[in-house]
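SEVERITY: medium
COMPONENT: batch folding queue
REPORTER: lab tech (J.R.)

DESCRIPTION
The queue accepted two submissions in a row. Attaching both inputs and their returned structure tokens so the on-call engineer can compare them side by side.

ATTACHMENT 1
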Amino acid sequence: MGPLTNVVIFACVFIFTLGTNIQMTVENEFTANYSSSLLTTVPKNILVHIHVLDLSYNKISEFNVLDFMSLSDLRVLNLSHNLITELDFNAFMFNQDLEYLDLSHNRILKVYCQTVERLRHLDLSFNEFRALPICQEFATMFHLKYLGLSATTIQRSDFRYITHLQLHTVFLTLQDFSRYEPQSLTAINTRSLHIVFADNQNFSFFLLYDGLSTSENLKITNIRYSLSYKDFPFPPLELVKKIKTTALVLDNVDLQWGIIFEIFLLIWYSPVEYWTVKNLTFRGSVRKVTEYEHLFLLSFQEKLINWDGSMKALTLEHARNKVYYFNQEILYRQFSEMNIEHLTIYDAYMPHMLCPKRISSFQYLNFSHNALTDELFQNCVTLIDLKSLILQRNKFKSLSKVSLMTSHMKSLRYLDMSSNMLHHDGAEQHCQWQVHMRRQGLHNQ
């Protein structure tokens, strides 16, 4: 095996031992695990030929070159979840094979830089930096693929030393975030970007817009905005043409009704193909859900019907509605008329879904963990391309109505109705299932 194959294997062993959360020291020829051992300093008795060293979840506050100078074969080092306040890269000057370095979840304020040429993975996220800790020495880390950072302020010049690097993933944590210079993120060259805001402050819409223009894969966690939706700036139309993202994940979203639909409208007209929204809460009040909102949604519906967009799959998981009043039929119509292949609405307390008015492009529908009943898709003749229908954990009762529901779905191959309350009354008409269905999950739990 070559050196790159070896380090992948060692990293896998390292990650596995992390997941087992071993409370005692485990050491063999290549791996030493001191995780969660109440250490305050780096142990002195580590085998010199070790490749993977895990010192995470301890109380180490400092380290220096003497702690690692004998470990010339070290390739993976995890110092995350400690009490480190300063980072001096000179501590690794004798670790020329070091490729994976995790210092996340510490208290680092200062960095003293030195090139670690073979580094492929560097994680400095969840620390206490004010500005991004990107040193001039990072410019020669040509092997770097994963970079984790944290800061309270960001400006475009922060990235000047790494604009030429071909990164795969940038992970950015913004705790107590205070200032962002627009267009800063677009200086990064990365395929994937993950931004985590603090869970108790407003997110930056400029970071959302710039993130969409930066990477193919974008994930943003903790999206909250407590100000009025009227103060939320809708993005300029020219932004749509600049968007690079094709796979978007928004996690832990808590926004007002109007803002959600402004963002939705932007994404729908963008090149995004796969969009996932997890842990969604949308808010509002009778006063704020006005006639203007009603007209806006009607206009939005019109545009959806006539737009041949790029989106292929939309996934909504764990959605909660805290709007006091809104026209639910308008919302259901938006979903039913989408020109996409895959739609998942999971755990959203959804009581109903409308039949599409025209021949639908849906091939996969997953409405599990909702409140749907036997009235779903009765006499619906527009789902002729639907291949998979998953309706686990709803409120279906009648097997005969389920069979009627699927009778017009000529392409249906997979039906999952498990964990409902299904029964067949002898007085009801006989069930007539599609002969081409390969699997039916009809059992109750």
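ATTACHMENT 2
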Amino acid sequence: MLWLTVSQNLSFNALRNDLVNQLSVKANERLESREEDHVKSWLNEIMNRHKFALFLDDVWETSASCLLEELCVPQSPHHNSNIIIATSRSKSVLSQLGVPPPSVIQMEDLTEDESWRLFSSHAFPHSGGVLPMNIDQDIARLVCNKCGGLPKALKEIGKQMAGITRSNEWELVLLKLEIFTIIV
């Protein structure tokens, strides 16, 4: 099992090094040199010898067309026992990665209740996900709603709110989120 977060501002060298680090541990094989040609050769050899599941998280348009090649991921038909799972905000990215349309799963945003449960579990970890009495519920729910039902946003903003106990601080965060929403 291998996991790479690709992101918008990627470096193929950094991704390859991350992959090397994961494979070194899992395949119990060491890389002698971090020179680019040596890294690519080593990755190609190791990935051709082992079965793997590779998770490519947050792939963007700018990297999709050459990503698998840059990571030395075997793409020949005899490697069909390997699994590659990619997440992206764009269906065209998945197409560039060779994902056939029937294999694309469109994730739906969370409902308001699901969003609140996820957000609360991260924003209020010390109270078991229950809103503390000193925080205005309306403001907290508005902050949660600004995440748009997106799990990653709910989790990250929830984590940022953990430990913030004054209502005026919650109001400030809400204001910043409203400004950010207008800009985006």
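NOTES FROM REPORTER
Residues 61 and 93 are 5 Å apart (CA to CA).
No errors were logged for either attachment.
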